[in-house]
Amino acid sequence: MSDESPSRLGRGLSALLPGAAGQSTPNTVSVGTPAPSEVRQFAISDIEPSSLQPRRIFDDQEMESLIRSVAEKGVLQPILIRPIDGGRSRYELVAGERRWRAAQAAQLHEIPAVVRDLDDQEALEIALVENLQRDALTPLEEAQGYQRLIDQFNHTQEDVAVAVGKSRSHVANTVRLLGLPSSIKAALDDGDLTAGHARALMAAAEPEGLAKTVIKKGLNVRQTERLVKAESHSDLGQTKGGAQPAGSKSADILALERRLSDSLGVPVDISFDGKGGKLMIDYRTLDKLDDIIQRLTAEEN
Q: Which CATH number, 2.40.30.10, 3.40.47.40, 3.30.420.10, 3.90.1530.10, labels domain 4-138?
């Protein structure tokens, strides 16, 4: 990947994305909205949703409120679209899917929009940033967006962090949520667990069982961390000689895995049998392997 992509997004986001310069409601023209001459009316039927859209869940109550507003006042903040295959009559959404959906539900025939020629990488980055600025993504949607940038466009976690304006540790911790059991992922999407709960449960030997306890008792994140720690001490008490029970890892090993993963920007797996073990580092490209080697062999200042 070229070094210019994340910085290019940062420099041009306010010009590319309606309302990117600040928090805004879907129907408010905000700082960063393109000049009126750049905004045109487009037939809603000529615009298609994007497969790159990171958002999967749209709150019904919020949509109903937006539909009523659009029906009464119209769409006041333009959406962002891009031409499909260079054509002039078909377009793909980049940002503003809620407004586009609401306009359809309100039976409008046209919607204000700004057209930009964007590649897939730019479109995904912009869609991610727009949703992150509005706190519109679930933790898993955010994680899947980051992982797609990593897999599809050969971004490192550092690249993703620069592109979306987050810390590398935040990106690394969020991506790790994708490794949770499906039942915990479902609880995250349903809002029964927060990202903080999920990160605490990642250190547990039996995360699904503890997740049920957390939900049933309504535990907060701190209480969940204490519950996981208590489970770890219980496991250590049952295991003599330092060996791990089959299929489980101690909280210390899991914490070390997280620390190494944050440092290297890739998944890390440590196995230990009481006498010795293995350290496995997962990478997808030769460029990333070179980056890992440089980090491991870097001399201290």
A: 3.90.1530.10
Q: Are 87 and 123 in contact (CB under 8 A)?
A: no
- Which contacts (CB < 8 Å, 24+ apart) does range 272-277 have? 272/244, 273/243, 273/244, 274/241, 274/242, 274/243, 274/244
CATH 3.90.1530.10 residue ranges in the chain? 4-138
Mind listing the pLDDT tens digit of every residue in the chain (301 residues)? 334 444 444 434 444 544 443 333 333 333 344 454 588 899 998 998 888 877 777 777 778 888 999 999 999 889 999 888 755 678 999 888 888 989 999 999 999 999 988 888 888 888 888 777 666 678 888 888 888 888 888 888 888 888 888 888 888 888 988 888 889 988 988 889 998 999 889 888 888 889 999 999 899 999 998 888 887 666 544 544 444 444 456 767 777 777 787 777 777 888 777 677 888 887 777 777 877 887 787 644 4
* Cα 195 from Cα 60, distance rounded (Å): 22
Contacts of 265-269 with CB under 8 Å at 24 or more apart are 265/156, 265/157, 265/158, 265/168, 265/172, 265/291, 265/292, 266/157, 266/292, 267/176, 267/179
- Catalytic positions, written as ranges: 97
Give the C-alpha separation, 163 to 126, whole Å. 9
- 66 contacts: CB under 8 Å, gap ≥ 6: 26, 27, 98, 99, 102
Q: What is the pTM of this model?
A: 0.57
